[in-house]
Write a structure and sequence with these properties.
The chain has 472 residues and is α/β, with parallel strands linked by helices. It is built from ten helices and 26 strands.
Length: 472
């Protein structure tokens, strides 16, 4: 009891407010400047632009928010059924307008080949968890569309993902999908030999029984070259709980092909209560604050492990009757109206902007710097800035799903190595930066000790001020 009272008093001594967002009473330096994609040379960040193939979102409404967000890539679903409504007749105009506009904002599209097309008998379903094409006529139709799609976009699109969450399908086996994947990627490479091939957008990372048959067949046929990147989803209420399963999945894939890279291909949290949202994680209560916290934890948990990330998604998605689910999936960074136009950016949009603007190709993981904390249940990673070698550290409390009301834990962090001249604390939800007082940090041998640093349940930065671009 006494310990709790002392902790509360200590917290109040450092904060104007202990709950929800970080509000230290330390001197403020300014707000992080965000950068549009045009001003970022390179990064590993992608944003989801899914379901345009089924008209569940409106690109024309959200496109003005795309470039300013700062992600360098966008995931798009090419939609066989939307492109081919009459056999042998392809309409790519709707997708041309999206691809061309995204590229004009220096956001590079990557295309997913999916779903089925009911104009063919055995053509599968044009929805999540539907069947793949199975009849000879439907497979020929798929082959022709895939070939035409790649031929049409090969001067503008260079990465191709095959299907979406095939492990949810009940109408085909893992072996069926492996054959389908090999068939499709050979068509892609025949039209674009330099194409980067993405397999296999699995929903559940623990479905090793679904993943392994593909790699067994690739090995047996000496076709390892047909997978460049393995994409996966895997939603978890606490994003930090995802990684043991991801590591098992990576170990399995690398057993067959150690050259395969990994990308988290779709993940994000809802922003509304469970009575409203649909889709993954709908069984929990959410708010715009907890969405922002969750997204930050997943993004920087991936980034700290060297995994590229596609944040799901830019706009709320309104699923129509007849699909896998019906209603509004509120994982968008943009809140939408009933007509799918954009109402406004959410808190998570600004949070993502802060990450995308700061963590470009100049911020490099530096595992040689060792981090030790007196706290428990914390995630932390060390980086350095390529231009001057100065340090950046991410740290957050990871013991539970993000909360609307969370008292930051006062933490002593020992850094072995690194370079700090003027360390700053940055809140990635708000973008605010704070001076770390001289009393709260010191040089110790070849490293540093930071004391009584407030660590909330979402990532904050201890970073040298020279790395930051700030506005008052």
């Amino acid at each position: 009891m006494l310990k709790n009272i002392i902790t509360t008093i200590s917290c109040l001594a450092f904060f104007t407010g202990c709950f929800g967002q970080l509000q230290p009473s330390w001197k403020t330096y300014g707000q992080l400047k965000t950068r549009p994609a045009k001003h970022i040379k390179s990064s590993t960040w992608s944003i989801g632009g899914e379901t345009l193939d089924r008209d569940y979102t409106d690109y024309q409404s959200y496109k003005k928010y795309l470039g300013p967000l700062g992600a360098k890539r966008i995931r798009l679903q090419a939609g066989w059924a939307k492109c081919e409504k009459e056999k042998g007749q392809y309409n790519f105009k709707w997708l041309d307008s999206v691809v061309n506009d995204a590229r004009s904002q220096e956001v590079q599209p990557w295309l997913q080949l999916s779903y089925g097309n009911p104009i063919y008998a055995g053509g599968g379903d044009a929805q999540l968890a539907g069947g793949i094409p199975s009849s000879p006529e439907a497979l020929m139709g798929w082959d022709n569309w895939a070939r035409a799609l790649v031929a049409h976009f090969k001067d503008r699109v260079f990465e191709w993902e095959i299907w979406n969450e095939p492990d949810l399908g009940k109408k085909f086996t893992a072996e069926d999908f492996a054959d389908f994947y090999i068939r499709t990627t050979e068509i892609v490479r025949s039209e674009q030999p330099s194409a980067r091939l993405l397999a296999m957008a699995v929903c559940v990372v623990s479905r090793l029984d679904f993943i392994e048959p593909l790699f067994k067949k690739l090995q047996a046929q000496d076709k390892h070259h047909l997978v460049d990147i393995f994409t996966y989803h895997g939603y978890s209420a606490n994003p930090d709980d995802s990684y043991p399963g991801i590591e098992k999945m990576r170990a399995l894939v690398w057993k067959y092909n150690p050259k395969v890279q990994f990308m988290q291909g779709e993940n994000g949290a809802p922003s509304t209560p469970k009575a409203i949202t649909i889709g993954a994680l709908r069984e929990f209560e959410w708010s715009e604050l907890t969405q922002a916290k969750w997204d930050l934890r997943r993004m920087l948990g991936d980034h700290g492990r060297g995994i590229a990330t596609n944040l799901f998604t830019i706009s709320d998605i309104t699923y129509a009757p007849g699909d896998h689910m019906v209603g509004v999936n509120s994982k968008g960074l943009l809140k939408t109206n009933a007509d799918k136009t954009v109402d406004r950016p959410k808190m998570a949009y600004k949070a993502a902007q802060h990450v995308f603007s700061l963590f470009d190709d100049q911020v490099i993981l530096n595992p040689s710097v060792k981090l030790h904390s007196n706290g428990s249940d914390q995630s932390m990673f060390s980086y350095q800035y390529a231009k001057n070698g100065r340090s950046l550290i991410t740290i957050w409390q990871s013991e539970a799903r993000p909360s609307d009301n969370y008292a930051p834990k006062l933490t002593t962090l020992t850094v072995e190595g690194g370079q700090f001249k003027k360390p700053v604390l940055v809140d990635l939800v708000t973008g605010k930066s704070f001076e770390i007082p001289a009393a709260n940090w010191k040089v110790s041998g070849t490293g540093y000790i930071f004391s009584e640093i407030p660590v909330p349940d979402y990532p904050v930065l201890i970073v040298d001020k020279s790395i930051l671009k700030l506005k008052k």
